[in-house]
Design goal:
49% helix; 4 domains; two-stranded antiparallel sheet; single chain; 486 residues; four-stranded mixed β-sheet; 8 strands; alpha+beta; 22 helices; Arc Repressor Mutant, subunit A
């Protein structure tokens, strides 16, 4: 049996303004430009006046409340113009333009030229193949990846030609055309493996050179031992001196493991990091400023102001007038919320970054990673009295420009461990010391993880071997065997 019942619930919901602010906090300054442009396109009541003089701006500060009671039922569309328009008041955010450094105008150089695949196609035109072989060659080139490797088996290409182009070919015919393509530039293109790629490049060198010959033997007969750096096995099997092996390996190291990248890089998009914060040092004092992109000059459109003025002056208002003004009010409210959200975003970014700067002041002065203090989101949230999720949104995808480079804000946060003195130190500091230990080790006898544990312990950091291994992997440092050199 169904029953109808009245119940009361206490719910907490985010307002549209709060949701808008959270979304704006998360985006970096470059994405903020696009977000503002999108809002201006969608809301004709909003406009950007960055290029205009502040003193010429007529601002609309306050807007009528939806909860305002009408005085007369017959005049439910009436409103006070001064609630929407105040020509004498200039918002404080419009007066803050001088507090932010002017963004330097930089000319960006864009590379242009022939793409990797166009380059291969131009070489294909020069060798004069028959129609059938050219079709095979085009299929092969189409299956070469950006690194220059053939990304499909010969058998599969035979099937592709048969099913998609109704051309019956044998594996030998495909391999014959592939050999021609492997003669193209850059050397090593069309290889099916790293081993084949390196061998192709070596064969283009002086094969009469004894060290080139030795390098070819290493790649052809002992490639697995070479990749695992089992040099003792290679010395024993090839019966050569350590000096000769070292010279041959130097020849191999000079080769390009990804030949396609040398050309494909010119056609890829270049990404430029635009910092959201700027920390400058003046005689040992640090100063924080926001990127000027974070402080756009927005206002309500003058046309909408004039519409409100004309509507207020009109005594007889038709139904169409009331509908038009209702639309105008909605757009003004939306624009006002957006401007307020931008202002609040600007304030939240500044106080959060200032708290981080104060917390890591010594690091920002020196740029020495060993000076980084352990810092988690809660530490900053407690200082600025904001929620942890808000701090996370501020730190997400934001960059800070410092005297020693531009760094990702999120990278400043780290967990802590205790040293032998009982002090809390940042894991960043431990990783930096671990990296220095590896850089300064004897490459003929690199440190194992167990030895690194002992070295760190001598420096006052007591860590388990698995923790050292985890930090080493996070730093992209290979195991000792792969770091070994002759």
């Amino acid at each position: 049996m169904q029953h109808l019942r009245l119940t009361q619930k206490l719910l907490q919901k985010l307002s549209p303004q709060q949701i808008l602010l959270m979304k704006l906090l998360q985006v970096p300054s470059v994405a903020l430009d696009q977000r503002i442009k999108q809002e201006i396109e969608e809301n004709p009541a909003l406009e950007d006046v960055s290029s205009e003089q502040v003193e010429d701006d007529q601002q609309i500060e306050d807007y009528a409340s939806d909860e305002e009671k009408q005085e007369d039922a017959n005049t439910d569309d009436e409103f006070e113009l001064t609630d929407y328009v105040d020509a004498d008041d200039i918002p404080d955010y419009k007066l803050s333009s001088n507090n932010y450094p002017e963004e330097e105008k930089k000319s960006l150089a864009f590379a242009s030229g022939t793409s990797f695949y166009e380059y291969l196609g131009s070489q294909l035109d020069e060798i004069g193949l028959s129609d059938k072989k050219r079709t095979i060659a085009e299929t092969i080139i189409g299956n070469i990846d950006d690194s220059g490797y053939l990304d499909r088996d010969v058998e599969a290409m035979v099937d592709d030609l048969a099913f998609t182009q109704s051309i019956i070919v044998s594996e030998e015919e495909v391999k014959e055309v592939l050999e021609e393509i492997q003669k193209f530039e850059p050397a090593g293109v069309g290889a099916r493996s790293l081993q084949e790629c390196l061998i192709i490049q070596l064969k283009r060198k002086d094969t009469e050179d004894p060290f080139i010959q030795l390098a070819l033997k290493i790649l052809e007969r002992h490639f697995d031992a070479f990749t695992k750096k089992h040099y003792d096995k290679i010395l024993k099997k090839l019966e050569v001196s350590e000096e000769a092996l070292k010279t041959a390996i130097e020849e191999i190291v000079k080769l390009n493991p990804k030949p396609g990248n040398s050309l494909s890089e010119t056609t890829k998009t270049n990404y430029y990091i635009i910092p959201d914060f700027i920390v400058s040092s003046n005689e040992g004092e640090l100063t924080l400023t926001l990127n000027s992109r974070n402080a756009p000059e927005l206002r309500l459109n003058r046309t909408y102001r004039e519409m409100l003025e004309n509507y207020s002056a009109t005594k007889k208002k038709t139904k169409k007038d009331r509908e038009a003004m209702q639309f105008v009010k909605q757009k003004i409210d939306s624009a006002r919320w957006f401007i307020d959200a931008i202002r609040q975003r600007q304030h939240t970014l500044y106080i959060t970054m200032q708290a981080i700067l104060d917390f890591q002041y010594e690091y920002f002065l020196t740029g020495d990673e060993t000076k980084l203090k352990p810092m988690i989101l809660k530490d900053i949230a407690d200082i600025v009295n904001l929620d942890i999720s808000t701090i996370s949104r501020v730190a997400n995808s934001k960059y800070v420009q410092t005297p020693f480079g531009t760094i990702l804000l999120k990278s400043l946060f780290s967990e802590s461990i205790k040293n032998e003195s009982g002090e809390d130190v940042s894991t960043k500091e431990v990783k930096k010391i671990l990296s220095n230990c590896v850089d300064n080790e004897d490459k003929k006898k690199p440190f194992t993880d167990e030895q690194l544990v002992r070295v760190l312990k001598e420096k006052g950091y007591k860590l388990a071997r698995r923790t050292v291994a985890k930090y080493r992997e996070q730093l992209n440092i290979p195991v000792a065997r792969l770091r070994k050199e002759l």
